[in-house]
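Predict structure. Chain length: 70.
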Amino acid sequence: VEVVTATGVPVDGAVVAVSTTLGTLGAASLTTVNGVITTSFTAPDAAGTAYITATVENATATTTVPILAF
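Prediction complete.
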Protein backbone atom coordinates (compact mmCIF):
# COMPACT_ATOMS: atom_id res chain seq x y z
CA VAL A 1 0.00 0.00 0.00
CA GLU A 2 1.25 3.47 -0.84
CA VAL A 3 0.08 6.56 1.07
CA VAL A 4 0.55 9.93 -0.63
CA THR A 5 -0.76 13.47 -0.21
CA ALA A 6 -3.17 15.05 -2.70
CA THR A 7 -0.11 16.32 -4.59
CA GLY A 8 1.54 12.88 -4.70
CA VAL A 9 4.09 13.33 -1.91
CA PRO A 10 4.73 10.09 0.07
CA VAL A 11 3.49 10.26 3.69
CA ASP A 12 6.02 8.96 6.21
CA GLY A 13 4.75 7.65 9.57
CA ALA A 14 1.07 7.17 8.64
CA VAL A 15 -0.64 4.30 10.49
CA VAL A 16 -2.51 2.01 8.10
CA ALA A 17 -5.01 -0.62 9.26
CA VAL A 18 -5.32 -3.62 6.93
CA SER A 19 -7.84 -6.45 6.95
CA THR A 20 -8.99 -9.34 4.79
CA THR A 21 -12.23 -11.26 4.47
CA LEU A 22 -10.45 -14.51 3.55
CA GLY A 23 -7.00 -15.79 4.47
CA THR A 24 -4.61 -14.00 6.80
CA LEU A 25 -2.37 -10.95 6.68
CA GLY A 26 1.04 -10.69 8.32
CA ALA A 27 -0.04 -7.64 10.34
CA ALA A 28 -3.25 -5.75 11.06
CA SER A 29 -1.65 -2.33 11.49
CA LEU A 30 1.51 -0.95 9.94
CA THR A 31 3.32 2.40 9.76
CA THR A 32 4.48 3.80 6.43
CA VAL A 33 8.13 4.25 5.61
CA ASN A 34 8.62 6.60 2.66
CA GLY A 35 4.86 6.34 2.13
CA VAL A 36 4.76 2.55 1.79
CA ILE A 37 3.64 -0.43 3.89
CA THR A 38 4.22 -4.06 3.00
CA THR A 39 2.78 -7.19 4.58
CA SER A 40 2.27 -10.80 3.62
CA PHE A 41 -0.97 -12.51 2.61
CA THR A 42 -1.54 -16.22 3.20
CA ALA A 43 -4.36 -17.76 1.21
CA PRO A 44 -6.74 -20.25 2.81
CA ASP A 45 -7.17 -23.83 1.54
CA ALA A 46 -10.66 -23.08 0.17
CA ALA A 47 -11.36 -21.21 -3.04
CA GLY A 48 -13.07 -17.83 -2.94
CA THR A 49 -12.39 -14.12 -3.18
CA ALA A 50 -10.44 -12.23 -0.54
CA TYR A 51 -11.31 -8.57 -0.12
CA ILE A 52 -8.26 -6.79 1.30
CA THR A 53 -8.90 -3.35 2.76
CA ALA A 54 -6.43 -0.66 3.83
CA THR A 55 -7.56 2.34 5.88
CA VAL A 56 -5.58 5.43 6.85
CA GLU A 57 -7.39 8.25 8.67
CA ASN A 58 -10.59 8.77 6.64
CA ALA A 59 -9.44 7.12 3.40
CA THR A 60 -10.12 3.47 2.55
CA ALA A 61 -9.12 1.35 -0.42
CA THR A 62 -10.12 -2.25 -1.18
CA THR A 63 -8.79 -4.75 -3.68
CA THR A 64 -9.83 -8.30 -4.51
CA VAL A 65 -7.65 -11.38 -4.69
CA PRO A 66 -9.13 -14.49 -6.28
CA ILE A 67 -8.21 -17.71 -4.43
CA LEU A 68 -8.13 -20.87 -6.53
CA ALA A 69 -8.29 -24.40 -5.10
CA PHE A 70 -6.12 -27.08 -6.73
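Summary: The mean pLDDT is 96.
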